[in-house]
């Protein structure tokens, strides 16, 4: 038994060392890949703990230190909040440390490319504080998502228009037409799914009608002669707002009579839950990487704007001119990159707990419950307001550059 235990310990140590070596190699080439992988792994761990860790946590005296043992849902939420706040502390500390890093010669550059292992030491014992911070930080992350989307669609439009060729103008028209058709067809499905006959579903009808109104307002404002707008951004934002409306209505509690999808969702398979979590992971990671790579929003003053065009995994694997490379300015703001992941950690915690103090309301579904509904609706309204502002602001303040 003693020999078997020693052998198992040696194998585990070797495996951990091998994993650390592999990931460290990836991290040296692209820190963003390593941090994305670490973040995605932490989300998976949060979800697994939410599903299976409650019985164990009930037996831990430093967690279950109450006179009356809380419900199982409390322990499930507690597990998610502990992991997410550990992430929050890790990325926030790195963000503070990385303030002012401008060149690769800075000693902190090495910490950015190899400091991810310290995440394993981050732990938090104040889940109530974690919940409060997560609700605030999640709102900031959703705002960043909206800003990134607007930045993306405007750049997309400017790029295609800049080609000044008939093919790209036709492509603009086709994509815009597809987005508008998608918005209207999607809206029709929303009426079919979420306003069933025989039920008073005035709230759902209000949400859908408001979304349709914003779609028409986008087109009218963008095509107004006084506004230098384009139909492509208007159509893409319209489709996105329609999707947010669907996402909000689909997040309504399964027992709500106006949620037409509940008939097909009472028995949710593990595969469905896995798909939902993977979608969440991809969405959060993409937003963080997009923000961490955006030279327009985050690059330090000394950073070349062309630096963000580099792929996450460089094609050239040689290590020539190493000293020359170290003297180059960093291509994105390390500090802001970690801030985005910090906010994403809080956002993911709210998704896994249904934006509430207990996951019991959502029936173990990811991102289900009335708080989730209103977060989605308000995000859609904020998206609409920011897009309209991006169109009318140059007219209202012509002396400023937007």
Tags for this model:
402 residues, mainly alpha, 14 helices, 69% helix, flat
Task: Outline the structure in words.
The protein contains 14 helices and no strands. With 402 residues, the chain is mainly alpha-helical. The chain has one domain. The N terminus is likely disordered. It is found in: Membrane. It is a multi-pass membrane protein.
What's the topology here?
Blueprint: H1 2-29, H2 31-52, H3 54-58, H4 72-97, H5 107-114, H6 127-163, H7 166-194, H8 202-222, H9 231-250, H10 270-293, H11 295-298, H12 322-326, H13 334-353, H14 370-396
Helix pairs in contact: 1-2, 2-4, 2-10, 2-13, 4-6, 4-13, 6-7, 6-9, 6-13, 6-14, 7-8, 7-9, 8-9, 8-14, 9-14, 10-13
Strand content: under 5%
Low-pLDDT runs of 5+ residues are: 1-28, 265-270, 295-313, 357-363
Structural class: mainly alpha
**Helix-strand string:** HHHHHHHHHHHHHH
Report helical residue fraction: 55-70%
Estimate the mean pLDDT confidence.
Answer: 74
Number of helices: 14
Shape: flat
Task: Please give the alpha-carbon distance between the first and last residues.
Answer: 70 Å
Biased composition (Basic and acidic residues): 316-326
Region (Disordered): 294-326
InterPro entries: TDE1/TMS
Signal peptide: 1-18
